[in-house]
Protein: Hormone-sensitive lipase
Amino acid sequence: VDWLPMAHQLYPDAVNHTHQVGLSVATTINWLQEEQQLPLQNVHLIGYSLGAHVAGYAGTSVRGTIGRITGLDPAGPMFEGVGDDKRLSSGDADFVDILHTYTREALGMSIGIQQPIGDIDIYPNGGDVQPGCSLREMLTSTAGGSFMDVIKCEHERAVLLFVDSLMNNEYMSLAYQCTDPERFKKGICLSCRKNRCNNIGYNTKKMRKRSNCKMYLKTRAVTPFGGIHYQMKMHVFNRKQADDADPTFHVKLYGAHNDTDDLHVD
Structure:
């Protein structure tokens, strides 16, 4: 859907246009359904940033229920905390999955929406700091590099992850259901029992009756972004008093094609 002239305006004006554009998309889908017998279950809308909310408005305005909406880092300002009818939400399609890649807050708001709004909300790398997008990395990888480049890199990472799920689906990581990113980092949630893990991007599988299911995963800095999550459990038995020792551990993984740097174990 080409709505670039309406999107490239002052942000509040662009936000107001999302409803109008969503209605236009819904009108087209209704026509396809009536005149061309398009099954609504086969309709999959994919929207990035403001476009995610356009897809939400389209879903609520269609006569019937479309099959799926994928929100790629849906825009946060003027959508965070509002009612379901004023943004993309889990009721806008039979299945709504969200990729959050830039939820870091600055000046009281974040570029991407922070709250879970879909049936499944996936937060790669915690949903805030994406590998390869730090200012230092941007300075070394490009001729210039600025804070705007960092914002663009992290916000658009959701799009790249979705494309990567089509181009390199054999390398994609699994996302794991967890209550918060800190528990995930500690390795508490690395289980696929009872459908607690899922693919990301195009290959995300519908999970019924799990509205606002938050999932996390780690990705690489470059494509293919996926990898395998390894978990190491270490049991240390110390006969000394706890305050007599302050051990530090580093782990290095050796592979067939490459080795990792030393990984600090907290």
